[in-house]
Amino acid sequence: MDESSSKKEQPVASLTDDLLLEILLRVPYKSLCRFWCTSKSWLALCSDPMVLKKAPKTLSGFFYRSFTEPTYNPSELRHHFTNLSGRGRPMVDPSLKFLFSANYVDIEFLHCCNGLLLCCCEKKSSHYEVDHVVCNPATEKWTVLPKPEERPGRSTMYLGFDPTVSSHFSVFVLTEFTHGMQDDEIDEDEIEDWYHQIGGVEIYSSQTGRWTYHQSQWGDKTVEIFNSGIFYNGALHVTTLDSSVNTVDTEGKTWTTIPTPYYSRFIGMSQGHLYAVHRCRYSSQLSIWVLEDYGGKKWSLKQTINSVELFGANNIFFEDGFPPHVIAIHPESSLVFMILGLRKNFVSYNMDTKKVQDICNLAGESVDPYLPYIPCFSEWFSDGH
Question: Signal sequence: where (predicted)?
Answer without folding.
Answer: none
